[in-house]
Specification:
two-stranded parallel sheet; binds adenosine-5'-triphosphate; alpha+beta; Beta Polymerase, domain 2; 9% strand; binds magnesium ion; 10 strands; 22 helices; disordered C terminus
Length: 468
């Protein structure tokens, strides 16, 4: 009795038998069956009719309990991958080490996994304790214990509309808490990516991270460096495209997790203009995602790293390089630095370079230049990027609104806009000496000698046209 009271005061939960789930019926969990994909129901039904256990599992159950339509459905079963494959016409076994089955219905892809067993003590690990391979099948309660967080470890059976909960996930959903299953240090050591996942889910779901789940993160954060770069990159992308990127990055930073993810992000975020730019970029990304629009990976990373490019661009120009080659050198430096740690795919790096390289061209508004730029296949991304630069105070707002007018205008309007530019801006593209900055703009934030990244090397309205 006293023991129970002390445990209650300390917030220690009574130990339940972790091999027996708590079962919630439809009245208790309140899941709306209309939110369940009919194909997920087909898959579980087919498996059950063949004598197997089958449930919707993981993030989909979490989202259903929160009343949110899941973006995809994972199915867990006691059938082996071969047994699953035999039951469906369009089913493909994926993965060599741990096989899963992709079952396709039109465009929808369902991922069917066989219950996994307890992590084998002999499973191969790297020198930091990260599990490298662990491929055993097992009973359902072991599958539950291997999942990362309590709210991700529930099973929903569409046939009976019941939720099976081995780790008090329903309670944690109600309390809006992210809680890791098992011993936090051990679970992060096995797979350090779980530290990024908890941050993402907490920001996305607006949940708090339970104290013992959070406590080891700042200390264990460096373990992320041992995870293959491609996996960290995938997780970073999920995080940046969660619709809550800004909140995620703030959380990553306060947990010390940003090191090694985006080198120098910390430095960038501490500079007022850099911070403003990154904040605006992420806000617009979050808004797009929440409105169901797409976001280009290249644009995202081009934004996050822009102030590093600017800083280096300034430095190369201060060292006597002319603007365009200086920009390419700066882009090379930043991309080289990031590719190792981020596994930036070539496709993304190419997009980033395109977006950056287009920027000085927005300042050449004379003659045919703006018409040529409009034909660039990545114009829209470059233009959106320009608008962010204006909005962040890096460039004069006039440049952005001129381009908005030009982009949206008809032939006559475009001509009018080009003609409306002063003689100086129309400089015909010939190379001139850089113009001295007028005292009006001389507040020190865009001075030529400033190589600290506080402003564009050529931050004045249209002044770039005099230098091309
Ligand atoms: P999302 O909404 O981002 O898809 P999710 O929870 O479905 O969230 P997935 O990456 O699709 O995340 O993983 C599906 C399920 O697999 C998770 O809910 C969790 O149960 C389990 N899982 C995924 N990654 C891990 C991991 N690193 N460690 C343990 N379990 C994991
Ligand atoms: Mg998922």
């Amino acid at each position: 009795m006293i023991k129970k009271f002390i445990r209650k005061i300390l917030g220690v939960k009574d130990q339940r038998d972790p091999t027996e789930p708590v079962i919630y019926g439809p009245d208790q969990h309140g899941i709306d069956p209309k939110l369940v994909s009919p194909n997920a129901v087909r898959v579980t039904q087919t498996l059950q009719e063949a004598g197997f256990k089958a449930f919707v599992v993981g993030g989909a159950v979490r989202d259903l309990l929160l009343g949110v339509k899941p973006k995809d459905f994972d199915i867990a079963t006691d059938a082996t991958p071969e047994e699953v494959k035999r039951l469906f016409r369009r089913a493909f076994i994926i993965g060599r080490r741990f096989q899963i089955v992709h079952v396709m219905f039109g465009q929808e892809q369902l991922e069917v996994t066989t219950f996994r067993g307890n992590a084998d003590a002999n499973a191969p690990k790297d020198e930091h304790g990260r599990v490298l391979r662990d491929n055993s099948f097992g009973p359902q309660h072991e599958d539950a214990a291997r999942r990362d967080f309590t709210v991700n470890a529930m099973y929903y059976d569409p046939a009976t509309q019941s939720v099976l909960d081995y780790h008090e996930g329903v309670e944690d959903i109600r309390a809006k808490v992210m809680r890791i299953i098992g011993h936090p240090e051990a679970r992060y050591r096995e797979d350090p990516v779980r530290m990024l996942r908890v941050v993402r889910f907490a920001a996305k779901l607006q949940f708090t991270i339970e104290a013992t789940t959070r406590a080891p993160i700042p200390v264990m954060a460096p373990l992320i460096n041992n995870v293959p770069a491609a996996r960290v990159f995938d997780e970073m992308l999920k995080l940046l495209k969660s619709g809550h990127a800004l909140a995620c990055l703030k959380e990553l930073r306060s947990s010390g997790l940003h090191h090694g993810l985006l080198p120098l992000l910390d430095v960038v975020m501490e500079q007022p203009i850099g911070m403003k730019f990154v904040t605006l970029a992420l806000e617009s990304t979050d808004n797009r995602i929440r409105a169901g629009k797409t976001v280009s990976d290249g644009f995202l990373f081009a934004s996050l790293l822009w102030h590093q490019v600017l800083e280096k661009w300034n430095a190369y120009r201060a060292a006597g390089e002319s603007p365009i080659p200086a920009l390419h050198l700066a882009a090379d430096d930043v991309l080289d630095n990031q590719t190792d740690s981020l596994a930036l795919q070539r496709r993304i790096a190419t997009d980033m370079r395109d977006i950056w390289a287009m920027q000085p061209r927005f300042e050449r508004r004379n003659g045919k230049n703006p018409y040529k730029l409009l034909e660039h296949p990545r114009f829209r991304a470059g233009f959106d990027f320009l608008l962010l630069r204006c909005e962040s105070g890096e460039l004069d707002a006039e440049l952005g609104s001129w381009w908005a007018g030009f982009y949206g205008g008809d032939i006559a309007e475009r001509e009018r806009l080009v003609n409306s530019l002063g003689r100086e801006s129309q400089g015909g593209g010939q190379k001139k000496r850089p113009r001295r900055r007028s005292p009006r703009r001389g507040e020190g934030e865009a001075g030529g000698e400033n190589v600290g990244g506080a402003g564009a090397p050529d931050a004045g309205p249209a002044s770039g046209s005099t230098e091309q």
